[in-house]
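Progress note, sequence design subtask.
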């Protein structure tokens, strides 16, 4: 994004994701990374509800008076199945093989806590994978890049996505357009150019 922002309160990002950090840095906002140590297991089959619940848990875990806390969680959903982060290279290969050549949805839930109020929302984007050979999938997994990403891929890697619809930053892991709108509305950030 070309527009630069500043914040009227300290901002805490309740995430260890380097991609979420890079997205916020791109806005020019000063913030502190304070990863939330939470149990991410939840018996929820609706991906939109799941990411909202987990984003709320993350934000509440690092909530701090006077600060604006941003918690976020992303899940990939295809044909009734929710894909989180793979635990092994084999798991990544399995996920990528199941998503190979298909359209699927990416859901990111975000919770913003500020001034005693909590706002939680979810953004959905659609992604179509390229049709990849087994060798292509294994080669991509060997780069180790898929291992810390929901659905075992990153759109920013440029290797697996053919096309998408919706918010690019949402697919990366933090829907900036919606986040900016909410944080401006509650008086946390403002444009500086």
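Output:
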């Amino acid at each position: 994004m070309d527009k630069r922002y500043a914040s009227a309160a300290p901002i805490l990002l309740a995430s260890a994701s380097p991609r979420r950090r890079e997205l916020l840095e791109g806005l020019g906002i000063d913030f502190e990374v304070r990863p939330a140590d939470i149990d991410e297991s939840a018996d929820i089959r609706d991906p939109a509800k799941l990411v909202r619940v987990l984003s709320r848990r993350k934000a509440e875990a690092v909530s701090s008076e006077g600060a604006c806390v941003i918690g976020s969680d992303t899940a990939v959903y295809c044909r009734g199945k929710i894909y989180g982060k793979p635990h092994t290279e084999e798991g990544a290969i399995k996920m990528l093989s199941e998503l190979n050549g298909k359209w699927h949805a990416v859901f990111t839930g975000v919770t913003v806590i500020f001034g005693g109020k909590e706002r939680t929302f979810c953004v959905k984007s659609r992604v179509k994978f390229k049709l990849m050979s087994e060798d292509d999938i294994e080669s991509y997994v060997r780069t180790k890049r898929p291992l810390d990403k929901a659905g075992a891929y990153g759109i920013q890697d440029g290797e697996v996505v053919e096309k998408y619809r919706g918010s690019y930053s949402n697919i990366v892991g933090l829907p900036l357009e919606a986040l900016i709108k909410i944080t401006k509305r509650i008086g946390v950030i403002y444009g500086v150019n």
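The longest helix spans residues 47-61. Work on this subtask will continue into the next period as scheduled.
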